[in-house]
Design brief:
- By secondary structure, the protein is mainly alpha-helical.
- Helix content is 61%, strand content 0%.
- It has helices spanning 2-13, 15-30, 65-83, 92-115.
- The radius of gyration is 29 Å and the shape is flat.
- 0% of the residues are buried.
Amino acid sequence: MTACTETVVFFGKCRGFLFSCGMASALLLSACGTPPDGSVPGARKTGTFPNLNIKPEVAAQQITPSEKTTKFAELKSAQTRQTGSAGAGVPPSDAAKLKKLADTHAADTLKQIEAE
């Protein structure tokens, strides 16, 4: 019986939030429907089947293998410049701080949750 009481209190506190979530989901779902006439946006009924043997037109010229290797080399050099020669990622001084934070984070979070 206690769980039922907690559920009522929970929904009482969050009524405005739940209402706004419901309205937002209703608005999003209304955009998913098809038009009243049953047509699909962007589709045309021509009465014939499409010919899949016709090669589609390309939107832009594709890059050549030599252009690909040139661009790849440029990106690699930019990456090397940004990371430097060490490439360690995290400086050693920050690594110790992060390790300590990871060790104490779970315990601190549990204490905070239990205090509520």
